[in-house]
Structures are given as C-alpha cells and as structure tokens.
Design goal:
heterodimer, A: mainly beta, four-stranded antiparallel sheet, 12 strands, B: mainly beta, 0% helix, globular
C-alpha cells in the first residue's frame, strides 16, 4: 500500500535562508513522486516530479528534491527563500503500476511561512 | 496551462438540494478525477474516470456520484447536499500518453452547504 508522510505541518523561515520540507513515502512498486504547491486561495501547481530518471530533480522557482530510496524520502529544498514562496506544499506518491489507474496519494501538506 | 475549467467557481446551496459540478477539459486526456480539499485532510479522491462511461470510486465517494458521457466532461453530483460536503472541489486530468501519472488541476469550486 502507498502512503505519504509530510513530517512538518508548518515550517517558518526567514527570507534568504534555506528551505527544507520533509517527505517520507511508502510504496509497493517503483514510485513516481511529486511536489505540488498551492498559493493562498489558488489552485494546485506541479513544482517538480521524480519518475525513475535522475534522483536529484530540479523544479520551478529554484526548488529541487532528492529521491533517496534507502531512506524512502523525497525532501524538498531551496537554497534561499523568497517571500513569494509562502504557500502550502504537498508531497504526492503514485505507484507505477498499470492497475492503479494513475491514482495519487497525497500528504497532508506543509504550510511554509517566509518572514521578512 | 492545461485546458481545464470548472463550473461554477463558487456555489452556496441549502442542505438537501442536489448540486452538480462540471469539469471540462480541452486536452483530450483519458483520465479525470474529482478531489475535495479540507483543512487537515489534504486532498482526498472522490471519484475518477478512466474513459468515457468508465468510472470508479475513490476514498470518500459516499454521497457523491459522477458521470462521463464524453471525453471532455466529467460531472460530479451531490444528490442531496449536506453541510459536511462544504469544501473546495478540484478536478484533475491525466493524459493517455502522459507518462508517470502526472495530473493537472482545474481552478477549483468552492461549495458551501448551509
């Protein structure tokens, strides 16, 4: 069975400091992993995805994530936070199994606050 | 942006009334999904479709039904709305040729049941 755990429900950083949002997953098959971002009162936007190619994945707006199979983790990082990064971030897993009809399993989200 | 629209964008209704939300896509994608988003619960899958007239239940399907009579439209119906169905509803699509389950989301519908 698949599951996703976002280890922090809230993260607060100062502008210009690094961002780390942590995600652990469980999957029976070779997984695809995603990070989505949702700005206040907005829709969901794909930030980046891991699909069994390079383990270090680069996304939009300077974010990146590293797939670590041995640790079953897919943490999201950014070297320097910007005020516009304040949003809700979701870690998502999907088994690459033809029978799952492309269903995604969502973490509960991490709210990122960026302080001036 | 993927061509996905949802209508209405906002709706206020009363308990016991039927409500239908519409998701329309212009991408000709095979898979379509309905989610609800509630504080503390993230996104939860209500129903999904893997082709015209092919639908299945998600994890929170009670009180909801869906229909897909053509590729571009996926309807979500609350037969008799309850206050517990107050939520933000998102539609998503995933392509037949798209690899690795990537989903694209519509702008959402905010539903309030009084």
């Amino acid at each position: 069975a698949q599951s996703v755990t976002q280890l922090d429900s809230h993260v607060s950083v100062s502008e210009g400091t690094p961002v780390l949002l942590r995600c652990n997953y469980s999957s029976s098959y070779s997984p695809s992993l995603f990070w989505y971002v949702q700005h206040p009162n907005k829709g969901l936007q794909l930030l980046l995805k891991y699909t069994s190619a390079a383990t270090l994945v680069k996304g939009i707006n300077g974010f990146e994530a590293e797939f670590k199979k041995s640790e079953t983790s897919f943490h999201l990082t950014k070297p320097s936070a910007h005020m516009s990064d304040a949003a809700e971030y979701f870690c998502v897993v999907s088994d690459n199994n033809a029978g799952n009809n492309r269903k995604l399993i969502w973490g509960l989200g991490t709210s990122l606050a960026v302080n001036p | 942006d993927a061509g996905i629209t949802q209508s209405p964008r906002h709706k206020v209704t009363e308990t016991g009334t039927p409500v239908t939300l519409r998701c329309h896509q212009t991408e000709n994608h095979r898979y379509m999904y309905w989610y609800r988003q509630d504080p503390g619960h993230g996104l939860r899958l209500i129903h999904y479709s893997y082709g015209v007239k092919d639908t299945d239940k998600g994890e929170v399907s009670d009180g909801y039904s869906v229909s897909r009579s053509k590729t571009e439209d996926f309807l979500l119906t609350l037969e008799s709305a309850t206050s517990s169905q107050t939520s933000v509803y998102f539609c998503a699509i995933s392509g037949w040729t798209k690899s690795y389950n990537e989903q694209f989301f519509g702008p959402g519908t905010r539903l309030t049941v009084l």
